[in-house]
Write a structure and sequence with these properties.
Distance between the termini: 12 Å
Radius of gyration: 20 Å
Largest sheet: 5 strands, antiparallel
Number of helices: 9
CATH topology: Beta-lactamase
Shape: globular
CATH superfamily: DD-peptidase/beta-lactamase superfamily
CATH class: Alpha Beta
Structural class: alpha+beta
Order of helices and strands: HHEEEHEEHHHEHHEEEEEH
Helix content: 40-55%
Strand content: 15-25%
Number of domains: 1
Length: 293
């Protein structure tokens, strides 16, 4: 696990030592771009510091429920209260992504309306009147956890039908204790168990690895209404780790921190699901250390 961090540190130090042109020689556009890059770098450093801090914590897993499954043979390695249902917050967007991937062509476009943008969590590049394809909405939903992007995806087949498809897919996968009442995860009625989510993670790992690839990226940009490029920041801090294959985080006060993910441990894909955690980063590092031992 710690092998990832020296390379990251070298990257940050190298990037921070780049000397730009004198401020007086910069155009207004260049100045704006430089300030944007500085903000991006500051965020990356904060993510790195957060991971490093939680890596150094030595504590028991505090999640109320978790499960670790070896996806190479579907054997359960570690578990606690894996059958207890909790709100799952934005982990909902993984089922949204599955339905979107299977029912909507990625090049299909839709014109956004105010109704589609009602859920909290919008971005400057997702605005009413915009014509946008399903692929970019899916990326915005998974990378920055944009609730309006997830909601807009549901309007391709129709919002009610899309939600029915999400619940139907859960039944098909044997997720017996799972239910969805919205498409993005703001509702506390979106509930599941660690065991059920492990089935969803295994299905994505087998059938839709492209979803994992999206959740690992931190280089997705779209223009805002004025044409200025806006970066969608990955809210899943694990994307910096070499061991991270893919996954989705979530948070609501009533759900605390949630996670449905896959990490490579000893050359094996391990599904790690956490529900109702106070610190998912520390929990993940504790579980990874246990698995390596």
């Amino acid at each position: 696990m710690t092998k990832s961090f020296p390379f990251l540190l070298i990257f940050f130090l190298t990037f921070s030592l780049v000397v730009p042109k004198p401020a007086a020689a910069l155009t207004q556009t260049e100045r704006s771009l430089l300030l944007q890059q500085i903000e991006i770098l500051k965020h990356e450093i904060q993510v790195f510091q957060s991971l490093l801090f939680n890596l150094q914590l030595k504590q028991e897993v505090n999640a109320a429920s978790y499960i670790v499954v070896d996806l190479s043979d579907n054997s359960v390695i570690l578990t606690k209260n894996a059958g207890q249902a909790y709100p799952i917050a934005s982990v909902t967007k993984l089922m949204n992504a599955v339905v979107a991937s299977e029912k909507i062509g990625k090049d299909q476009t839709i014109q956004l309306t105010e109704k589609m943008l009602e859920p909290l969590g919008n971005s400057p590049s997702i605005f009413s009147g915009l014509k946008i394809n399903a692929e970019n909405l899916l990326k915005a939903s998974l990378i920055q956890s944009a609730n309006d992007a997830a909601e807009a995806l549901a309007y391709f087949p129709g919002k009610d039908k899309f939600l029915d498809l999400m619940n139907q897919k859960a039944k098909e996968l044997g997720m017996e204790n799972t239910s969805f009442s919205d498409t993005h995860g703001l509702s506390t009625a979106n509930r599941s168990t660690a065991s059920d989510l492990a089935k969803l993670v295994a299905y994505i790992h087998q059938e839709h690895p492209e979803i994992w690839q999206i959740t690992k990226t931190n280089d997705f940009w779209l223009p805002d209404i004025s044409g200025w490029l806006f970066k969608f920041q990955n809210v899943n801090n694990f994307y910096l780790l070499n061991e991270f294959i893919g996954g989705k985080t979530g948070y609501l006060p009533q759900a605390k921190q949630t996670l449905a993910s896959v990490f490579r441990v000893n050359e094996k894909p391990m599904a790690i699901i956490l529900l109702y955690s106070d610190n998912r980063q520390a929990d993940v590092f504790t579980l990874l250390n246990q698995l390596k031992k």
